[in-house]
Design brief:
By secondary structure, the protein is an alpha/beta fold. It contains 8 helices and 7 strands. The chain has helices spanning about 25-40, 50-65, 70-85, 90-110, 115-125, 165-175, 190-200, 230-240; strands at about 1-5, 10-15, 130-135, 150-155, 185-190, 205-210, 225. The chain has a 7-stranded mixed beta sheet with strand order 1-7-6-5-2-3-4, sandwiched between helices. Helix 1 packs across helix 2. It is elongated.
Length: about 240
């Protein structure tokens, strides 16, 4: 564990989910392939596109529409609909096709395995702190077995922009008004969404170095960096004694 700033007393914790509490990469790979196969079954004209083609298509839409970059659900829905249009699927079939494809995606997307180590850490932390989830993704915390630990879960919506925008941080503050911004510790793997987002909100941040983010992507230094959840848990619980 490495400290870059002074850690002030923590009164509440917020967690990113994907690639912070579990390895989401293989989950998404399986889900992407499942959606591609579903599309070919329902719309055979889409067969020329492999899972990687759908990914590149989604990335292009994200590049052309930066506001979608922090809302994975809306980005995926937009990319599915636009892709079907490119294959000349009839307009009256697109909405139902996208809805069915997204439901198929979510069944595979929620096939997440949570380690016993993470469950133990989350139980211990939930006994001492209010826990909140702040995720730009669309995983169902109840479906993956983490729902019991969180008092509130915030994900992008029509009224909430994703991290690093401050919307979800402020929404969390609204649920725990007695906790000052500097008394929050946000925990996540993304240098932009999590570390920069928390910094902009006036929160402290714990950067998980075992996720997808890399040190060269940091725009601001986190409060601390850690490599395992038990390591962070031990540090936080030590300060409650």
């Amino acid at each position: 564990m490495q400290f870059y700033r002074r850690l002030y007393p923590v009164q509440a914790l917020s967690f990113d989910l994907d690639d912070t509490l579990y390895n989401n990469v293989p989950v998404m790979q399986r889900a992407e392939q499942a959606v591609r196969d579903f599309m070919v079954q329902e719309f055979p004209q889409t067969a020329p596109w492999q899972a990687q083609d759908w990914l590149r298509h989604r990335q292009k839409i994200m590049y052309d529409n930066p506001d979608l970059a922090s809302n994975m659900t809306q980005l995926r829905l937009t990319a599915l609909a636009d892709g079907l249009r490119q294959f000349a699927v009839a307009d009256d079939e697109i909405d139902t096709g996208v809805e069915a494809a997204f439901a198929h995606f979510m069944r595979h997307r929620n096939a997440v395995e949570i380690s016993a180590e993470v469950h133990q850490a989350m139980r211990e932390l939930a006994d001492h702190f209010p826990l909140v989830a702040l995720s730009n993704g669309n995983v169902d915390v109840t479906a993956i077995g983490l729902g019991e630990y969180f008092q509130h879960v915030f994900q992008p919506s029509a009224s909430l922009r994703g991290k690093p925008f401050a919307d979800m941080f402020r929404a969390a503050e609204g649920k725990l008004p007695d906790v000052a911004p500097q008394q929050w510790l946000h925990i996540g793997d993304s240098p932009s969404a999590d570390v920069l987002g928390a910094h902009r909100a006036g929160w402290q941040s714990a950067w998980f170095t075992g996720g997808l983010g890399r040190a060269e992507h940091l725009q601001v230094l986190p409060t601390l960096a850690y490599s395992s959840l038990p390591q962070l848990t031990q540090q936080l619980l030590k300060n409650t004694k």
